[in-house]
Amino acid sequence: MRIGEIAALAGVTPRAVRHYHHLGLLPEPDRLPNGYRDYGVRHAVVLARIRRLTELGLGLPEVRDVLADDEGRELAEVLQELDEDLARQEAAIEELRARLRVLLEQAKAGTLPAEGPVSPGLAELLGAFSPSRSASAAKDRQHLMLIDSMAPSEERDRILAALRPLAQDPGLAARMQELYERLDALEHAAPDDPRIGPLAEEFAAAVPDTMLGLLAGVGDASREHPYGQALLDDFAPAQAAVIRRFMTALTARAGRGTG
């Protein structure tokens, strides 16, 4: 048989047959005097086996291991690994579908955050805040989304738990909204604007004791982390000056115990 004939018989393409030769999966047949390959039944059997194994989900390196083991021990091991891998994929898909069901319910109820899919904990936190027109507040929401996506789950849950007082205290939430609006007003201000110091102090004073350790710790860590500088670069110079003084004040307050 010519290469096109055996490929059609096995249900693969001539290109696949050549690739299997290249990988050593399929032995090269003898050639006829005119130089054409002359395939026999043995080659068709091997090709059919390769096709069945790849349809099961095995990669070609795994297929090579299976074909090299005449007693079938390698096949049993590979199939067991494949089954375990499929089970992991199935569990991951079910977890994703469960998350999608929550998002669909939020969308139907009108509580899906404008920023898009986030963890249930952050969705609950953001949903508790009243809509805000503050650009600075919007940036902080985006920073929370970044933490939500990148922080280890335990660290993320600790941060969200510490921020819950903002959502549970309407008076505190309103106070923070006022401070955010004053921070917005510094967008085009000079880095030495006299409003910077008082606003930083008021931001620090508004932080509840339950959040003090968290925010002070984040401030200390961010000084040594590229993300900290990137966060500051996201704000105008005067606004960044407020944030620096705010974090310094929190660190000092944490060192004193409570303020």
UniProtKB/TrEMBL annotation:
InterPro entries: DNA-bd_dom_put_sf, MerR-type_HTH_dom, MerR_fam. Residues 1-69 form the HTH merR-type domain. It comes from the Bacteria. SUPFAM superfamilies: Putative DNA-binding domain. Keywords: Coiled coil, DNA-binding. It holds the Pfam family MerR_1. CDD domains: HTH_MerR-like. The keyword Cytoplasm does not apply. GO terms for molecular function: DNA binding; DNA-binding transcription factor activity. Residues 72-106 form a coiled coil. PANTHER family: HTH MERR-TYPE DOMAIN-CONTAINING PROTEIN, REDOX-CYCLING DRUG-SENSING TRANSCRIPTIONAL ACTIVATOR SOXR. This is DNA-binding transcriptional regulator, MerR family. It comes from Streptomyces indicus.
